[in-house]
Design brief:
Elements (H helix, E strand, L loop, with lengths): L11 E3 L3 H21 L3 H12 L8 H26 L6 H4 L3 H10 L13 H23 L17 H35 L5 H6 L1 E3 L15 H19 L2
Antiparallel strand pairs: 1-2
The protein binds protoporphyrin IX containing FE (HEM).
Protoporphyrin IX containing FE binds next to helix 1, helix 6, helix 7 and helix 8.
């Protein structure tokens, strides 16, 4: 997954740097893991037995233990993505894709043009769903940190800072924000399917490989979509440090 040779060559153009792609698919995977550990699924019991049998952990973590473990990963990814939205490659930056209502309206009216050609990065309409997903994900994780369950046994890492009733309120918010996340994910996947199959714009492949044929991109973008390794390293250290601080606050 190197980004060196694939910025603006004649044939292919880089749309998403590798960290955006890793963020995306790791987020998808972790959301599935968190959703399935929120309920009682047998697969996690088997993972528990495997971990204990190999001596990696003295006691089984149980479903909620795994839920909290995956939350650490998701929190790390989210903090990294927010950092990357400010200091990252061009298509990852919020300033590049978050636009006002006028840009959204003009994008919607240009949707009739055929053949439809996507621009480089998020379009102004899709950007709204990206921001909504990131905001709801942040709400989901923040409320989880303070959640207290009914018997007070399986609670979030920061729940000791709130009383029982407040912790239960966070639990309700945590459940409701998951419903919102569920709806947003549904709309997101539906929108991706519309672009992919109705508008015949291959947007899934760039989220996997990073690149797309240059002639399938609207205009002649000259921006450099490259993940600077120094910035990635700073982001990783910063996000890891913040996760540690939050978990141990
Ligand atoms: C748990 C489910 C999912 C979540 C939470 C999610 C979240 C996101 C987020 C936050 C972005 C913005 C990426 C960034 O700028 O960093 C994004 C973009 C994208 N996602 Fe997903 N996603 C999910 C599932 C999927 C699936 C199943 C597919 C494909 C089959 C998909 C395809 C895409 C594509 C193609 C983009 C780029 C859209 C564009 O060209 O502007 N996503 N997704």
């Amino acid at each position: 997954m190197t980004d060196s040779a694939n910025t603006n060559t004649q044939s292919r153009i880089l749309v998403w740097d590798w960290t955006v792609r890793v963020f995306h698919w790791a987020t998808v995977l972790l959301i599935i893991c968190m959703w399935s550990t929120a309920d009682n699924h047998g697969i996690w019991k088997q993972l528990d037995q495997f971990v204990v049998a190999n001596g990696w952990d003295e006691y089984p973590r149980g479903n909620m233990g795994w839920h909290r473990t995956f939350a650490i990963g998701l929190l790390f990814l989210l903090i990294y993505r927010i950092y990357w939205g400010v200091f990252g490659s061009t298509t990852a930056r919020f300033s590049q894709f978050v636009k006002g209502p006028a840009a959204v309206r003009s994008y919607i009216s240009a949707l009739k043009e055929r053949p439809y050609k996507p621009g480089l990065g998020h379009n102004p309409l899709g950007a709204l769903s990206v921001i909504a997903l990131l905001v709801v994900l942040t709400t989901q994780l923040t409320t989880g940190l303070f959640t207290i369950d009914v018997d007070g046994l399986e609670s979030g890492p920061l729940s000791r800072h709130v009383d029982f009733d407040t912790g239960r309120l966070f639990a309700t918010l945590h459940e409701n924000s998951f419903r919102a996340l569920y709806i947003l994910i549904g709309l997101h996947v539906l929108a991706v399917a519309v672009y992919q199959f109705l508008l015949k714009a291959n947007i899934i492949q760039p989220m996997i490989t990073g690149g797309r044929p240059a002639d399938s991109v609207k205009g002649h973008p000259t921006d450099t979509v490259r993940a600077s390794l120094v910035r990635v390293a700073i982001g990783v250290v910063l996000s890891g440090g913040l996760v540690w601080l939050i978990w141990n606050a």
